[in-house]
Amino acid sequence: MKYSRLCELYEEITSTPKRLEKISFLSKFFRSLHESDKDVLYLLLGEISPDYDREKTGISNQIVIKAISKASGVPAENVISEWKSLGDLGKVSEKLMSKKKQSMLSNSGSLTVEKVLENMRKLPKLEGKGTVDKKLSLITEMMAVASPKEALYLSRTLIGDLRIGIQESTIRHLQRHSSLTKRKRQSWKFRAQ
């Protein structure tokens, strides 16, 4: 699944303060998911793995600032200045990535949920000498091909501050509801035969 599709859902969810509308957006999204896309649920919660794994990205604001700087071609000092002005590293990355060179934009749209999860799941496992550079490389790889909206949510996910206004209980409620709906549909098909 393309990461841009998930970012569109994030945008829909943040567009309203109404819980029922958020549930409606999520419900439509869940119905469209394939079994192979189930890991997207972790990203909806701003996580990269289940709670029992306790894996966190372990990324500081400073590493994200360096990645934004590298991917956008803007000096780190300017990134920090924008951060002080906007107060949100996600918004900073969105703004600066929208100004990056057109040649870099040609790769835009190639970022997938699978690639995001793959790279983010490597981050906590990195240890030893040169770890910061390796983490920076993985993050910059994603940022370089990300659209401005994708960069916004990548940054927020990395620092653990997604800001979309949904909780785990909402996701669990929707999972139960969508599975009941499928069972109900199957039972209706069975009766019709």
Task: Provide a brief overview of the structure.
The protein is mainly alpha-helical and 193 residues long. The protein has helices at residues 3-14, 19-32, 40-44, 61-72, 76-86, 89-97, 102-105, 113-122, 131-145, 148-159, 168-192.
**Structurally, how many domains make up the residues?**
1
Number of strands: 0
Which architecture name does CATH use?
Answer: Orthogonal Bundle
Rg over CA atoms: 18 Å
CATH topology, by name, is: DNA ligase i, domain 1
Write down the secondary-structure element order: HHHHHHHHHHH
- Mean pLDDT over all positions: 84
> Residue share in helices?
55-70%
Number of helices: 11
Describe the structure.
It is a single chain. With 193 residues, the protein is mostly helical. The chain is built from 11 helices and no strands. α4 crosses α5. It is globular, with a radius of gyration of 18 Å. The relative contact order is 0.18.
Question: What is the topological layout?
Answer:
Elements: H1 3-14, H2 19-32, H3 40-44, H4 61-72, H5 76-86, H6 89-97, H7 102-105, H8 113-122, H9 131-145, H10 148-159, H11 168-192
Search tags:
single chain; mainly alpha; 193 residues; DNA ligase i, domain 1
